[in-house]
Structures are given as C-alpha cells and as structure tokens.
Amino acid sequence: MGRAWRCVVLDVMRTVTIPVEKIADWPNFHDTFQRELGFPGFYGRNMNAWMDCMTSVDTPSDGMTTVTVEPGEILVLRIDEPFEFRRRCPAQYDALVESTAFVNFRRVEIGESPVIALLLVGRS
Fold first, then answer.
1. Residue burial 26-48, b: 16+ Cβ < 10 Å; e: rest
2. Of 17, 29, 55, 74, which has the highest C-beta tally within 10 A?
3. What does the angle CA 81 – CA 64 – CA 59 come to, to the nearest 5 degrees?
C-alpha cells in the first residue's frame, strides 16, 4: 500500500527576493545567499552548508540565519526571471530547487513542518 499523505496548513510569514541576476557561478551563489539570508561567517559555502542553514530558518537560536520565521511558518524565496537564471546557471538553479526540496523532506521525515518555498516569477 502507498504512503499516507497528510495535509498541513502553513502560514507564509516572510518573503525574500533573491537577486539571482547577480549570480554567475558558485562563489556568487554563496555570496548572494549568505548576504540576503544572513548566513554566519563560518558558512561552508557549499550546498550541504546551505541546507544546514536553511533547515534552521525557524530556529533563531541555532544562529544559522538572520532571516527567520516562526515554527510552522514558511520562508518564501522569490526568484525573479527563473528561466533566465536557469539558462545562465543551470547547475546553481538545479541545486537550489533540489536542495529546497531536500530541506523540506528531511524536516517532514522527523515530524517537522516544511520551512521554505520557492516562488518563481517570470515568463519562459
């Protein structure tokens, strides 16, 4: 038998627009997210470190981001012109989508609510 799904009602508390037009490579990607979300100085500048920071976005005491939400709320990452971003930086775009999904997956697996969402705004 298949896995049982449950419905979770979440509140959107905060939206942060990520200036992906400034991203051209991995260093720019990590600079941008560290600046916009307030990752700590010891941020490892790789996707495992990105996922660790984003997993704690609703736990300010962890000190992983300065942009936070309350437990049960969602942080929305607004990505303007996502098709252009994907065209210019396919590896970074795919990593952003996959890592966002993984952060929420690992939280749900331990009984916590999803914490981040992507809002892709633009035309193909």
1. eeebbebbbebbbbeeebeeebe
2. 29
3. 100
